[in-house]
Amino acid sequence: MSKSKKIHPLDFIFHPKSIAIVGVSSNENEGGHFKALLNSGYDKNHTLYPVNPKMNKIKNFTCYPSILECPTDIDYVISRLPAPLVPDLVAQCIEKNVKTLHLFTAGFGETGDKEREALGAKVLAMTQKAGIRVIGPNCMGLYVPEEQISFTEEAPPPESGDVFVASQSGVLAAEFIFRLGSRGIRFSKVVSFGNGADLGISNFLEYAANDHNTKYVLSYIEGINNGKDFIRSLKKCAAIKPTIIIKGGITEEGARAASSHTGSLAGSAHIFESLCKQFGVMLVETIEEAQDILIGLKTSLNNINNSNIISISSGGGNSVLSSDAIAKSGLKLPAIDPKVQNDLRSFIPMAGTSIYNPIDFGVGANQVDLLKKLFRTLSKNKKVDCFFYSYGLMPWMDDKNTKANTLSSLGGINIKNIFNKKQYENKSFDVLLDAFSKLQKKLNLPISIIHRSRIHGSLDEVNYLAINALKNGIPFFDSSERASKAINKIIEWQKSK
Length: 497
Fold this sequence. Notes:
The chain is of the alpha/beta class. Helix content is 39%, strand content 16%. It has 3 domains: 3-135, 3-Layer(aba) Sandwich (Rossmann fold); 141-297, Succinyl-CoA synthetase domains (Rossmann fold, 3-Layer(aba) Sandwich); 300-496, Succinyl-CoA synthetase domains (Rossmann fold, 3-Layer(aba) Sandwich). The protein contains 17 helices and 19 strands.
């Protein structure tokens, strides 16, 4: 086996063949991890044990009084017990030779109570002595599509991807899954690790760096337990894979919230920022910014290293606002060469348009054949590294007028499942994406689609376009501001390598 394919010492955590949920609710409709695992189909190819001494059955599953009564070995135990009961559970895990204990249980060191801190220390000492690895306390645990493991009651995307997420926050971990997932991004693994008493951010960054199913790494961090380990793992991960971090607790108020949330000491924001810059880590402030960077990295923007943008849209006001956003971000709007201007005027009428960058193409911005000619002509400009194409859905852009050869809204979309591409069918967008995909390859220039607020149409159509743009390697952004910010980050990252 080659060195790159060696199994990482923590890999077993993400591939349990059996899971026991201790403290499963007696209310079948309440949900929790049991419902999440059923909805994701874990029980179809693995063994699932609900544990609660107060009942014998739940949803046609035998409910066991303790993990010691479960008939087979157990790889992974989820604790939903109150904190004072956890030491007894750990003792059972030791007897049962459990490999991983996930403590959904909260109420340890993050409370600030000395007795609860001591209780957490006792639990950690017991597990460390026995060689049991602990995820948590105070966390949601794992989402591993390959193994049909999930912690969200709403079924997440079933397909595996190449983005690894490590988040101290369980709610934010779920937001990563659903908000990024709704735009077509898929995940190798997501872990919500909470307090990180045993396995923390350093462990997961080091694992992600070595995971052959992971190409991109995203993390939400509040605090760091071991500075030296963190620096080493961050440096290693960022040297191997594009690494994006959202840092919580950078203000005094945020640091106070982080302390009460996961018991984390947030540390110096300046030092953290310096580390990220030194190692080539992309430090961002929001989920939206992380999403945009990932979309850029996974599409034709992944190799952009210069900042000359040619912006194309219909409507003078939008062109002006887009130009402001691009310029404010530090990107450039180069002048259009005189020869290229002359070529443009051969097919762009003078009235109601502009050929000086931004390009106001008028109604031609919604006609695919003219767009192809426009991009081919503009690609001859001396300075151009990327195109912004801004579109808006208009009431008159319908099938009867356009015959689907322009960027029309065909309507009739009934979204039932935001992760199911069949719910998004729109023939006109397929025409657009096919044209842009071929143009990008032929011109060797990225074409970023900039979504404008809808005058007509629905969110269904926007999601369809965004998801399929990603599949075709075409960047899609919700505004010029967001596109510009993401491109700047990618250029900085390219220069840091």
